[in-house]
Amino acid sequence: MSVDRKITCEDCKEYLWIAQGGCPPDHEGTFYSGEPHTMAALKHFLFKHSEHNLKFVPEHYADYLEGYKEIDADNFKEVKR
Fold it and tell me: Where are the domains of the chain?
């Protein structure tokens, strides 16, 4: 069974769905690096939260994520400067 994985910012209470797969170290899973919109959302997320407390968590942390805002990579539009 595939497990969704999210990167979270504990300081800002936000998360981004970024991967699927088994439990490391047995199976690394799939990191969505081939999707430009997902990588743009991840880049924005990492820079925005660069000095914050980040976690990479599996979906069974659903209770942990209650009250967190999801950053939707599928609808993410990178702001050009």
Answer: 4-72
